């Protein structure tokens, strides 16, 4: 099951890395429009400057591209049956493009409540508050997007509740490991 979860989620992993690089492209700065349009609620920004149209576009584009490529790789390698989604759906270019966009959209949408909460409590990305709040914020930072992504996988791959929980746990651990690698390579500044 663990291998199948990773095989099913590989486009999201690579899509997230793609997005980290995509949002750094200076020529795309015209898309750095904050999702909250710089609106405030109670004197504080709704989501902040880090949640932008560029991030949404990059994540949806990246997961779509990698879903298409990964579907092709699984087809030619004979590993389609290891992908939980392909047990119930055909591995086609259009389907993979659609699911990739859906994964990317879910990833970004499920990050928004976290950003909203952090703005309310003045918690920025580099300083996560004091104990025990910092532990809760760290865990939520690593699992928020996974809740969305694994929810999409749960519907498409018909996951059971234990499989769903395992997917979120593995997704959070993978998120931490990938972020640590990105820090080492200078793509990210903080976990």
TrEMBL record:
- Give the transmembrane region(s): 6-23, 53-73, 93-110, 131-158, 164-187
- Keywords (A to Z) from UniProt: Membrane, Transmembrane, Transmembrane helix
Task: Please indicate which superkingdom the organism of origin belongs to.
Answer: Bacteria
User: InterPro entries, alphabetically?
Assistant: CarS
Q: Name one Pfam family in it.
A: CarS-like
Q: Does the keyword Membrane apply?
A: yes
Protein name, entry field? Putative integral membrane protein
Q: Which organism is it from?
A: Lachnoanaerobaculum saburreum
Phylogenetic classification of the source organism: Bacteria, Bacillati, Bacillota, Clostridia, Lachnospirales
């Amino acid at each position: 099951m663990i291998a199948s979860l990773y095989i099913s989620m590989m486009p999201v992993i690579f899509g997230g890395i793609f997005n980290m690089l995509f949002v750094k492209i200076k020529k795309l700065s015209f898309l750095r429009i904050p999702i909250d349009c710089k609106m405030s609620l109670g004197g504080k920004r709704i989501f902040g400057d880090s949640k932008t149209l560029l991030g949404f576009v990059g994540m949806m584009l990246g997961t779509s591209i990698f879903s298409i490529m990964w579907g092709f790789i699984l087809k030619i390698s004979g590993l389609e049956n290891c992908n939980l989604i392909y047990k119930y759906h055909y591995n086609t270019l259009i389907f993979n493009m659609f699911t990739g966009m859906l994964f990317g959209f879910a990833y970004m949408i499920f990050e928004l409540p976290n950003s909203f909460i952090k703005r309310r409590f003045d918690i920025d990305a580099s300083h996560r508050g004091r104990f025990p709040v910092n532990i809760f914020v760290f865990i939520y930072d690593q699992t928020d997007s996974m809740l969305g992504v694994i929810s999409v996988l749960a519907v498409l791959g018909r996951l059971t509740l234990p499989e769903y929980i395992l997917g979120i746990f593995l997704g959070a651990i993978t998120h931490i490991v990938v972020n640590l690698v990105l820090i080492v390579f200078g793509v990210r500044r903080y976990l």
